[in-house]
Amino acid sequence: MESTIWTYPWDMVESGPDQVARELSSAGLDGVSLAATYHCFDQLRPHGRLGRLLTSERSAAYYPARDDAYGKLRPARSNLLSGNAWTECADVARDHDLTVTAWTLFLHNTHLATTHPECAQMTCTGDRLRHQLCPSNPDVREYACSLAQDLSAVDPVSVIECESLSFGAYGHTHFHPKIGVELGTGGWFLFSLCFCDDCIASAEDHGIDITELRSRCLAEVEAVFDSGEPLESSPADLLSADSDLQAFVNLRDSTVTTLIEDVASASRKPIRLLVMGERLTSGVDVPAIARSVEAVEYLCYSPNTDRTLETLSSAFQQVGDACRVAAGLQAYPPASTSGEQLAASVQAARETGSDLISFYNYGIMPRRNLEWIRRSLEC
């Protein structure tokens, strides 16, 4: 079993790349998953040297992205790092025999979705999701492939870890969501569907009456807004009653699957997919995409080891190979309330045959938790 830890490059720079690499190596870790692109954040830093709070208001690239590698969409460079600081951190990590994974945010990008709203997802109500690029959009698909190709050319990188390489939904946004109505599982499902021009055109090409489908979705959502009562129908109920809706969901799955295949082909390094959100919302069809990726990674942020076992066992059935399923574990409360609790989660992942464990997160957990990680890996 291999192990890595999600790490922000600004934390490595502040503490000193050599010092951090030594700490990670001493904790028994095999690698570091270094954020190459990242969303906006407000970070509480228990061992930050230049302040306990750090805020970034823009989704940005932290690795030295090449402008000429991109088309219409290109990542903004962050001012938190200068020059080749990201690459220097990666080089130092490799010098300490730590593998370097480029932890990469793809389509969850407030900066690009705001500056290019025509590339953002659109709800049935006609509202743009200004934090989420649409995987049906050709410029977005080109951007995702360019990002993978550009990053894979960075020498220390051994794997590209892909986060948000799929459809997204309202809720995980740039701003604090203010929600005073409960749509129900069916209502949130319908509100998550994208009806941008590119999704509409694709649906029409596949014989789906997308105009009528959008009208039906809108009517259901507006009924909830008017009454204040959640939609009683579940997503399964809605799908079984509407053949166009089922066809549209299948098309969304295919859109994401082909995008992941394209990104894998564009990358010169293996890619690993971080699965987040429900399949109906994200469009991630794990059995279909498993053949294109080195591993599929699931977040098991829970103190309940039975839940971890259940999540990973289900993942193995979908992927078809236990060695290509990775477990993401939170190395601090509430998922891990002690070193013993973290060790139990690691043991649960081992029992299911997981080949990789990723720990979250170096910069936001107390330093003493590295000792928790060390002990859990030794058990």
Walkthrough of the structure:
With 379 residues, the chain is of the alpha/beta class. It has a domain at 2-179 and 255-293: TIM Barrel. The protein contains 15 helices and 13 strands. The strands form three sheets. Strands 1-2-6-9-10-11-12-13 form an eight-stranded parallel β-barrel, surrounded by five helices. Strands 3-4 form a two-stranded antiparallel ribbon. Strand 7 and strand 8 (128-133) form a beta hairpin. The radius of gyration is 21 Å and the shape is globular. The two termini are 12 Å apart. The model has no long low-confidence stretch (mean pLDDT 96).
In CATH terms, the superfamily of one domain is Glycosidases
Which sequence of strands runs across the widest sheet? 1-2-6-9-10-11-12-13
Radius of gyration: 21 Å
Tally of alpha and pi helices: 15
Which spans have pLDDT < 50 for at least 5 consecutive residues? none
Proportion in β-strands: 15-25%
Number of strands: 13
**How would you describe the shape?**
globular
CATH architecture descriptor of one domain: Alpha-Beta Barrel
- CATH third-tier fold name of one domain: TIM Barrel
State the distance separating the first and last CA atoms: 12 Å
Biggest β-sheet description = 8 strands, parallel, barrel
Determine and state the CATH class of one domain.
Answer: Alpha Beta
Mean pLDDT: 96
- The share of residues in helices is 40-55%
What structural class results from the helix and strand content?
Answer: alpha/beta
